[in-house]
Structures are given as C-alpha cells and as structure tokens.
C-alpha cells in the first residue's frame, strides 16, 4: 500500500501533502495491525471488567459498544449494580452466581467450533469462579461441560467423569483450599490445563496464596496458572487454545 | 469388552476363574487409559528431571529407557554430571547453556507439524531458561524460533520482530527482573502465551517472586504462568497447544 | 550575626542577659536553616495529609494556615468530610476523583516555570492516584499534561503520545496490576521517571506489592519509586526536579 | 507415699530431718511424674538430634547413654560425622539415605505391637525424609510398610496399593513440590494421617512453604501436619498413635 | 462377590446384561470401599461446613440428611443464620460460642468409648475455637474435659490440672497470641497432641501466623498441627485417635 | 524530512522505490528517536552490568565498545574477574571497594557541569554500595562529595556536614540496617533525594527488606527509592536530575 | 515452715492427716511464690485487655475486682462499650484518645517514685498508641512527660526537647510510617528505650510491619521492641524499669 | 557556661573573636552532650561489631582504641580472623563459642554493682547467642548467672532454678525453635525480660522469624524483644537496666 501511495505521488495523482496525510494513517497502521490481528478473533464479544466501575460508567461504555452491534460480556458485577444497569439496558442478562452480565446481539456465531472445554472445580464454594469461567466461554460461543464438586478429598467423584474430561480440548481446573485438583487431573488427561486458584479457604490459606503456590509447584506437566479467582482469565486462555484446535484462529 | 467377557462366561467359553483374571486386567485398564492417552502423545521423548539425581542414577534410568528405543531428554544436568554420563553413554549430546542432555534415537519424527513456537526472552541473562525451553521443544520435534534480548527497556528491538512472533502458534515468553515482557507481547499477539518468570535479578527481586507476581497480574489477556525458571514446563505447555493446533493430539 | 551580638556585648550595647536570649534564638537558627531552605521553595502551598484526621481537625489546621494567606492543598479527603469542610470554609474546592481539597489564595504564582510534568497512567482504574498527582502539581503551580489509559497491554496508545511525553521535564508514571508501564516508558524517554505503584488489582496483586516489586526491579535505568498509591509523593518528587530544571530551586 | 512418711514421723520411725529430706524428693516427684509418664513409653530409644552437634559431642552424649544400656537413635548425621562416630563406637549402624545412626542394645522389644504404620511418599526425591520417618519407627520397634513414588501426578500407582495403606493403623504421608498427596490419601483412608511437607521443589516452592500450606489447608479431614522435612516428628506422632491403638501406652 | 456374580452368569442365574449392571456397581465399589471404610466410622454424624453457605442452602442439605436419620453437626454458623435455620428445623440446637448447630437423632451411641479427650486452651479469647472442638467431639459421642484459661503466662494454673490432662487419651491444645501452650503441655504429657493455632492476637500476630509457626517449630515431640482456627479439624483428628485407642476403628 | 522525501518523489528526484527504502529507514526512525534522545545524553559512558557475565564475555563486549572510542563503566565485577579482564585490556582501572571497572577514553568531558551530587551513607558497611554510586557519577563526569558514616545513631556527625549536603543539587542517601537516614536527611534539605537501601544487616533485616520498607514509608517528602544495593541506579537517577539542573539534558 | 509442720507431727501436735492437708497448701505455695512476687508490684492496678470482650463481660470482671478495692485499668475499649460500662459503674473515667477506662480507688500511691518516663512520639496520628502508654503509666502511679509530634522529618522539634527527654529514667518511643524515631532518640540518650511500632501508614507499611522491622534493625544500642500498636506493653516495660531505678521493685 | 562567656566578653576578659571560637565549641557541645551522657556510662568498654570487617581493619581500629587505654569488646569474630588478630595483639582473649574477642585494660571496674543479670536459654544450640550476651555483660563489669538448657519442653528444669532467676535484676531470655521460653519465664518473674530470638531451627522456622513473632506476641507482660541472634543487643539493654537499678546511670 505504501508503494501505491508513492507511485501516485510520482505520477501526480497525489500531492505530497495528501500523501503525507495518508502516510500518517499508514504509520498508524503499523500499530493497527494489532487490531487487524484482533479482528482474527472475530465473533469475540467485547469484555468489560466491572469491578471498580460504577453502574453509570458501565452503562456509558455498554451503550457505546452497542452501537457496534457486538456481543458484550461484563464480569464482576454486583447484584445491586446489575439491577441498575438492567433497568437502563434491558437486553442484558444477569447471572447471580458468576456475577456476569451478558448481552447477545447475535444469537448464533457465524462459525461452528467442534469439541468443548471442561470446567472442573473442587468444591461448591468455588462455584462463583467456575461459573465466571463457564459464562465467559459461552459468551465466546464455546461449548462448556461442567464437572463440579469433584475435589481430591473424594476422588471417586472425579473418576466417575474422567473420560468425559479427557475428551475435552482443554480443561480449566479451579480449586481453593489446598488447590491440589489440577495436579490430579493433570496426571489423568493429556490436554493442556489452565489452573485457577481461588481465595476460598481460611486460616493459612492466605486469600488463595496456598492454592496458587500448589498449582505453580505441580509435579504434573501441562499445567499453567492464572491469577487468584481469575475465572475469566482461565476461560480466556482455554478459548484461545480451543480455537487453535479448531483451526479458526 | 466387559460385555464380551460376560457373554463368553454365559456361553461357557470362559470359566468364571478365567473371567475374573481378565476382569482384574480390565479393572486395571481403568487406569491404563491414562497410558493409552499418553500413547496419543506418540513421539514424545522420555523426560528425566536431572536435579537431585546422581550421575549414576541418571545412567541407570537412561539405560532402562534406551531398551525401549525412545528419544530421551534430561533437564537440569550440571556440566560435571554430564561429562560422567556421556562417558558411559556417548550417544547423549550435552548443551551447556540449557543444561540439557538429549539422545536422539529417531532422527525424524513419524509425523510433521506445521508452524513454530516462539521463544521470546528479555535479556541475555535469561538465556539458560530460554534455551531449556527451546531444547525441550526441539526434543519433542517442534520447530522453534528464538527472539532473544527483546526486553521492554528497549522495546524497538521487540517491534523489529513482532510480525514473526505473531505468526507463531504459541509463544513462550521468559523474563526475569520486573518480568514485564509477557504483558507487552500479550498486547501485540492473538495467540496463547505461556509466561516463565526467572530468578534473574537482585535485591527486591526475591529469587523471581517479583517477575512471577508481575506475570500473574498481567492486564493483558491470554497469558498463563508456570513456575520460576521452569523453562521445560513453559515449553511443555506450548507443545501441547501446538499439537492441538496441528490436530494430532 | 553571632559576631555582631558579641561586639555589642563587648561595647556594652547588650547586657550578657539580653545577649543570651538573642543567642538562644540564634541557636534555634541552626535548625531554622531548615525553614530558610524551605523558604527557597517559595510559592509552595501548605500540604495537609487528610487521612485519619477528622473534618473539624482539618478545619482548625486550615484556619490557622489561612491566616498566613497561603495556598493550601489537602490530600486524601473523603467526599463526606469534604462537604463538612467546604460548608465551613467555602473557599476550598473539592475534586472527587483525586479526593483533594485546594484553596488558592494567590491565583498566580510570583514566578513562571517553563515546561511541564507528564502524568502517565496505565488504566482508568488508576485514575484516582493519577489525579492526586496531577492536582498536587497544579497546586504547586506546575503545568501538567495527562496521558491516561496508555497501559502496556495496548502499547500503541502509548506510542501515539510518546513524543509529547518525551518533551516533559520529568514523568510521573502510575500503574497497578503488573506495574510494567514505567519500564516501557523508561526505555523510551531520557528524563527521570518517578514510578507510583497502585493497589489496583486483585488476587496475587497483594494490595500493590506486585506493582511495587515490578517497579523496583525495572531493568530500565532512570526510574525511582515511591510508596503504593502515593500520588502526592510521586508529584512532589517531580516538582522538586522540575524546579531544579527551571533553576529556581 | 506422703501419707506413709507422715505416719512414720508420727510414730517416730523417721526424724523430722529425715522426713524433710524425703519430702524434698517428694516435691521433686511433682515434676518427676513427667519421667514416670515417660517410663510408660518403655522401650523407647534415646533420641539425639544430630544437626548442629559435632562428632565428638555426639560421641560423648552417646557414651553416657550406653551406660544405661538403651537403644539409641541419632537423626540428621552427615556421612562424614557418621564415619567419625562409628570409628569410636562400632556398635552404631549408619544409614546414608535417612542420615540416621542407630544402636540396638536389645534386639527384641519386650512387647509385641500389632499392625503397622504406612509411610507414603510422593517422589523419589522425598526419599531422605521418608526414610528418616521409617528408620525412626523401626528404631522404636514399630513395623513399617513403605509406599514410595505414589505421587498424585500418576495416581494409579497409589491405587495399586491403597488397600494395604488402608489397613495400616496410621499413615505418615510425605510430599514436596505441591504437597497434594496427603489430601488424596486422606480421602481414601479412615485412619489418622500425619502429613510431612518436604523442602523438595524449586522456584515458588519457597523451601517447602508451598507443600506446608497445601497440607494445612487440606479439605480432607483427619490430617495434621508437622514441620518441613521433619520425618522424625512425623514418625514420632504416628508411633504414639500406633501404641494407643495397641493399648500399651 | 465378583466371583459369585461370575458363577451366576456361568450357571445362567444372571444374564450377561444383568451381570454388567451389577458389575457397574461393583466397579464403583472399588471406590465405594471408601464409603465402606467410612461406614467403619459408624455413629459419626454428618458434618456440614456452614461458612459461605446461605441459611436456605443449609436447610436443604440438612433435610436431605434427616431422611437418613443421622446426627448432624454444622460448624461456622452465625447467630443470624442459626435463627433462620432453627425456625425451619426446630430439632437443631444452636451454641453461640462455638457457632455450631447440632441435631441429635440418636440420643445414645450404639457403642461406648472409654476415656476422654482433653481440650486445653490458653485464654478466654480462644474460647470460640475451643468450644468448636469440644462440641465436635461431643457430637461424635466422645467425652470431653475442658481445661480453659491455662496459658503459659500463668503456668501454675496449668499445673493445677496437669494430672487430669495426662490421663486423657489425646489432647487438643488451642492457643493464639504466641501459641506456646502446646510446647509446654507437650513436655508434660505422653499422649499425642493436636495443636490448633488461633487468629486471636494483634499486630505482629498476622492473623494466627505467629501461633501457627510456633506450633510447627515446637521442640517438644508428639505435636502435630492443623489450620488456624480449625477447632473442628483439631477435634476430628483427636476423635480418630481416641477411637483407635478404643479398638473400634 | 518525510515532507522532503515526498516532494522529491513528486518532482522526480526520487523513484518510488528509492523513496520506499528511505521511508523504511524513516519508519525505523520512529524508534530511532529513542537513540536520538539517548544522544542527548552525550558523554554518557557505555555501562555494562557485570554480574552473571564471564570475564571473557565482558572482554568481548568491551572490545566492541572500545571501537566506538567511548568511556566504559562496568559494575559488579569481582576481583578475580577484574584481574582477568585487566590483563587483556590494561586501560581498565579496577576499584576494589565499588567493584567497578572504568576505562576513560576522554579524560575531559566536552561540557562542564556546575554543582555536585552528595553521596550520603550511614555506616562503613554500606561503603561498597556508596562507592558504586560515587564511581558511577564520576564516570559520567559529575562531581561527587562523599559524606560517609553519618548514620542516625550518631546524628551529630550528620549535622557537622549538613550545610555542604544542602548545597548539593541532589543527594543519593544509602543505608542498611533500619534505613532511617534518608528520612532524617529528607527533613533537613530541600532538594530531591534518591534513597538506596542496602542488604547490610542481619536477622530481621531480611536481606535489605527492612531498609527498603523504611525508605518507601518515609514521612519526609521528596524521597524516591531504587532497588536494594542498587548504587548504580541511585547514582543514575541523580545524574539525570543533576543534568536537568544544568540545563544540558 | 515445712520443718515446723514435721516437728509438730513428731511431737503429736498435728495428726498425719492434718499435716497432709497443710502440706497440700504448702505444695501450692510453690506456685504461690508467683503471686508473692506479684505482690512486690504493690500498688499495681488490675489490668484488663478490653478487646474482644463484651461490655457485660467487662462489667462482671470489674465488679469482682472492685471488691478487692484496687485500682483498675482497662485498655482497648471502644467508645460505645465505654458508655455502657460507665452507666453501670460510674466510678470509671473514659479517655477517648487512648481508649482506656480507669478507676482510681486510691487517689495516692502509698509510695513515691522519683523521676519520670518520657513518652516520645512521631506524629499526631500515633497519638492513640502514645496515650495508651501514657495513661497506663499514670494508672500505675508513674509520672509521664509527653513529647509528641517530634518525628524525624522535622528533627529540630526533637532537639528542642532533647534535654528533658535525656533526663527521663526510660523512654517509650512510638512511631508508625518508617519507624525511624527510636534510632534517632537512641543515639541521643543513654537510658533504655522501649520502641513501639504503630500500624499508622499506608501502602508498603503493611500494617506496621515496616516500622516493626525498622526498630528491630536499629543500629543504635539500648533499644528493645514490643508488638505493633502495643502502647500498654511499651509502658509496662518502662514501668518495671522505672521502679527498678527507684529501688522499690 | 554560655552565661560565663558572655560576662567575660562584657567585662573585657574575652575579645568577641575569642568568644566566638569558644561559642563554636559551645554550639558543638549541643551535640557533645551526647558524649557527655555517654561519659556517664563510664567504664563501658569500646565495642566493635566484627562481622563484615577484615582482620586488618579490626586490628587498626583496636590499636587506635588501645591508645585510649580502654577495655575493648569485639563481637562476631570468626576463629580464623581471631587467630590473625591475636597474633598481632596478644592481649586479646578469644572465646570460641560466643565468637567474642575481649581485651581487659583494667582488671577491676572503678565501681561495684550489686546483683546480677540472668542469662536464660532454651537449648544447647542457642549457646552461641547466649554466650555472646554473657560475655558482653561480663565485659561491661556486670555479674552474670547462666541458666542454660531450661527449654519449655522439659519445664521442670526451669523450675529447679526459678528462684535464682527471680532474684536477678533483669533477665535476658534466649530461644530459637518456637521461642516460647520468654513467655513462660515472664509469667514467673516480676522483673523486666529482654527476649532474644535465635535463628536456630529448621523448616518453618524461617531463620528465626518464628521465634521472633512468638516473642513479640507474648501474652506475658514485661517482655521486650531485640533482633534475631542479637545476643549483644539483649545484654546491652539488660546492662542499661541493671545500672539504673544500681543508681549509677
């Protein structure tokens, strides 16, 4: 494209001044490649991190996005804020457990992905983080299968579902307390595992530090870790991998 | 298969005793699926974690494996140990920087993978960890492209190579000191990033804790983290993803 | 001056008792030099750290200062306290985002400073700290240019403004989460950078510890760090440097 | 006994002076009960913590004990020290892996204990701590069964032995790295588990802190924890429990 | 049992299909052994960890359990929640100090245990944790003796009761602040001690970390530790040991 | 310059192909501005961080630089390495205390700076870090005045020199142990202070953490902090400020 | 006394049974010595740690003590609780800043102590802890002189009072933020200093950890430290020393 | 004295110039009072902290001091260094356990102190720190009584000596591992206790952190704490108190 502009200058189609302006745009294109790459992620909804933003701030951002007619996912929204937002924008659906707001502009994605992501979680108390992960994946148009309450203290519950977990493309494994679940799953499956420590626990759990360290030190290979309680991040990494496996990056 | 056995018992082809023995095997197959799944990872070399093992222990384990005529990768081997091992088993090649020993039984993998993994690293001082990752990927038959010394303090060096990094299936991004590189790369590419903090640094680096926390807290999406200095683990996660992208899981 | 007093004693102009009293003052002058030096900082407003002080305590302190007819800056004032204070002293202006109260006695400083300080910040969530820095600098009569929402995860936004940042005398760079922004800016500018970690983040951020360690370990030279969320301190250091550059220390 | 003495004084068998001396002893008996209770632990060998003591100090202490004709267990003895000690006292046997010195005065205990303690350990790298536990139990005359290399990353190895582990009176479960093994075992057995974290690991393991926190936060009930690498302590607790189960406390 | 089924298939009593269904059950029995082992713990009440569960969730879980006509213990229930639950299920008894809810279906256990567990605690401020331990043991049908306010700063109070403590099967020793009590008790008794650190304290106590470290580092043998404030866990370990001593494991 | 090129294309002085090549260069200039800015720092020596580099690596890098005929500063060089390097490159001067190697190509800087930097340090044990700072500043052609052994425990020593410290442009204040010196100096001077914590101390000093926290929490304004033991970094920040004050940025 | 009893038994004045009872008392005297020693601290008020105790609990304890007609000091009492207590026991005086309740039974101590304790504190924000110390000392009948707001950032304020501080028997030095004040005072006085870190500060202060570490690492001799915010403890240590100096231990 | 000078000026005995010079001295006397106060500590030996100083540095400093004919105490001297120093200055006596060098110029102090300091320590492994304290006190001419190996795990050994400990003026109580000893002693004596944590221990002891936190959190009053392993500091505080009790401050 640079070449074209220069030829147009050479043959007088463009004045140097017009060319300069175009090249300024061109120069920005250097960075716009970022967006171009982002475009490859077509169908990805816009995501807003709701924590620390007021209801009215979220409404403003959402309205700006709705003009673009895109799907929207908002994470970490308290029930109170959600009520205020939904009153203004009724097309949002709020999910209490995952604390997510989702607006579906396109009911169907323009493409179809094979397979599913396994969301595996240790206890019912990790549910909120697990559902943030599940709702995120679903908002990105990815099929999710939930395997909840399969913690290591009652490992037969995990075994009852291990085949279905094995058949997933990638697993998001969520655990609080001692955070041992990813290690056990990691020894039983052959696909990548994204481990999400949660802050569930008490005493020497230190707000999730215990589970975080456990997961980083896992003796099973094929496990990588995201931040404490970061259900969204866990799912996002899994989605990128899932799409790679579908060759529609 | 269980059904078959029972029918054989019903029609007298198997005595109950013979069936019991078979079912015992069958029961073990419940776990053997693990190995079956592992078999899917065909062509994967055997990996030995060399730290804390003596030269003679490593020699014994290696010899047992060589009977299986498989490729072997040994990580974290000091130069002194490597010399002792190579004297006994001359088919091993030692790499000083990555501190890995590799033995190639099959020169060529029986399959061919498209694309490559990007190994991106901040400073020359992270070289040892970066090369552990690179040598690991190569031992698994995966093509690697190295982007070294592209740290954030001189970000133009990173930009000079960003297109080639973008075209990788997955990046392993290694950084010590403040560990900011994965965040910057994460904002510029659309594939998954495995971040490896290193213990390189001094003072308030606290043996890699600083870089580890930075990576876990990255505001860029699509980044997951492995343990400090765990070049092998970073590569292993990337390999799993790379194979998924090649549909040969 | 000591010499003068002694001569006055020698020639009887002062009794030893009168001289003693004067010398007591003189002795205090030893420390009063501090204030003399402080006077060099002419035009500096009085600053009150509002946190942990009640509205009525702040009112009392402010009134005492107003007698001196000086500008006043009060940091860390909650909205509730601000309302109570402004009712009593209407000449205060409250800024909600930075949580500062400012009273301008002199509209114009008696001197003019060339150039400006760049306030650079990563995300909208760091706004409160960034604005505390900006309002501080403005209360000290220093021009400020704001570069907000230029975090490393979308580094092209930073590049769009890098020339204007480069032309500042000094930058105050504010970041939470992984705190990588000062390292990136530090690699692109040649003036001193004061880095301010914020407590924005979650999980393994540990109330700003992550960003603090990142900044202390920066591999870019020319970066020094102040306490977590200390927007005032960041600006104050920048002001001292800015004035040095203006030769009006 | 006090009563006896007083009656003897009353009927003149003891002078008040003689009684006083006896009562002094009696008073000490208040504390001597401690030893009396200790006596209940008959057959327990004398234990010396060898770390930080020189070979000659250990020789002196051992000789004093040998006069009492008791079994002796010395923990944390380096090979070099052991050689020096065994030269002086040839009746000691040194075990390189557990770094223990044992001297058996009585080949057979004067009583017989039913059942055994299970020593379960995750990886070969925890062997040293596991063997310190095993040798300790054996020095106390307790039967030990070893279940080594049954870590959670290959959980089928654990299942292969789970029945024999279940039949133990009590388990000492040793693990480094992420320290998840006690949680898994705890979900499969119904007896008490003493968990021993080891300092084996690297990076964010922080010298065993990771495994320690994991074990303290275990969601399985019936697990209590001793200090990092404290194989002796783990075994000692198990021995006390094992004896209780044998009604020979 | 497997043998029986196979023989029944061989002699036509079972069709292969019926056998398969039975063996499915059998296969699950592999893990059901867990429950079988759990059954050995006959008379153990069902336990619910109340923290993080809503009143209505607890009511639902409790009702499901009541169908099984078992005793129920619910820990960590706030007074407010307890009121709501007791209104619905009046057979629950709430204890304010220990914050436990207990429902006794069987007034008497079907067996009788000899001896008692000592619950020893340092200060009145640790009462809540101590009572959680005591109520837990009582809910499991184990006799408890309480030794409260016997902290090391007034050690004569401990000595006044030491004989009665010594005669227990096992002690649960609870302490906050500096957490030294288990060490002192450990030097005076010969049975196992389960140490429970509490978060009681201030300043450098760091929410129980100080007491936790003290107990892990105890120079007295025979002490193992559970999580901070984990009164239930402390008691549960003691109960397992107490039953072993009663030969009714 | 872009404009010039376009005009040359417009009037045929350049072919579009030649222009494209030039613009490629131009595009790189976007980043080359960095170096242009760096050029403003003319006279700055090349700096090599010597730690973790072998003697032969340092020799290679140095030789490459010597071709550019620039001054060279190498920090963190052990005596042993220095000897090896000086044998090869005799023009290097080694300073044992600061562990720096300096090679002066230009005896005189091409410009002259007014004023000086104060290097203030608490104890003789911080000398190594203080001298690294001092030698760095001198290698950059900046005058340094040393105020050593003026720690807060003997504050009269500080007062004896306070006027000379006050007259510096900027102070680098270095302290280990409790790290209180910057706070005290900060209350007595009106210029910016760069605080450098050192790892000197023992016990609860935790390798400099104590001094680092002290400095970050200083109640004196005008203090910013660099990494533990980072004498070079402290000086570098001071040099940038000193040059600003000299209007030769 | 033991001797007397035995002689009485010998000559029939006491029956063995009567003697036994007496000796039981005697045995307890072994520990009663503690109280005897405590009696040496005559005039010491009873002290109650109010935190974590309800108003009614405090009222009960206080009433029991009032029967003994002693002075009472209650620390850490919130205003709300104090109001409730004073309604029931009007003889209590509440101090809002120190949050102490004091009841004076004896207006005058039966003895007179020479000299005074200096309570030195850095900032107005440490006032609450300083006043807890001051009120404690006064409740123990010890004269106190207050030196407030003499922090190291304005060290001339400290110098203005240094002579009066020097003349104290012992100083309690209280500081938050960077906690440097005890080091400075320690270099200027020759009596013992009890340092009290406070949790005042923000960011990297970590609830007083920063000040605590500073004080423990002080390079001035003659400083010992108590827990964070422990104004009572600081004063109590000072009182013990002050009494020693008055020879009325 | 100021008054005198002024009068001399007034009556011509001093010229203003002479007075100025004298007053300069006088001004310095402001700080010299420090030394004057120090002089009150007459008989105190010079103390050198030997760690981090070379043998030749120590020899130089010692020689300078010997001119002053004072006693000298050097702490933290390794055996190797001590040998080198004693060869040069044979009047030094080295003590291997405490690692102190002492030179006695005056055999007898010019004054006599009543009473003694108790040095109480938990285990033989804390001996080095305990002896550093003891040798320090003796070098200052203070009588010391040693109570070693009286740890809380065998508390009857402590009780055997408690009366003699009670009769000391002040106790220095030293403990590693869990550090509980000061709390126990604190409950039994009525004089001040200086607690010294040691780094003796392993695993979760974290180089003395465990003992340090225990001591800071002691529920016994009258305990203050110095840095880890700081035997000298513990003794120094005790000496200051001991002298106060002797009215020879």
TrEMBL record, chains A, B, C, D, E, F, G, H:
Coiled-coil ranges (or none): none
Gene name tied to this protein: larB
Species assigned in the record: Gracilibacillus marinus
Annotated protein name in UniProt: Nickel pincer cofactor biosynthesis protein LarB
Organism taxonomic ancestry: Bacteria, Bacillati, Bacillota, Bacilli, Bacillales
Domain PurE: 115-247
A Pfam family that the UniProt record links to this protein: AIRC
Gene3D superfamilies in the cross-refs: 3.40.50.1970
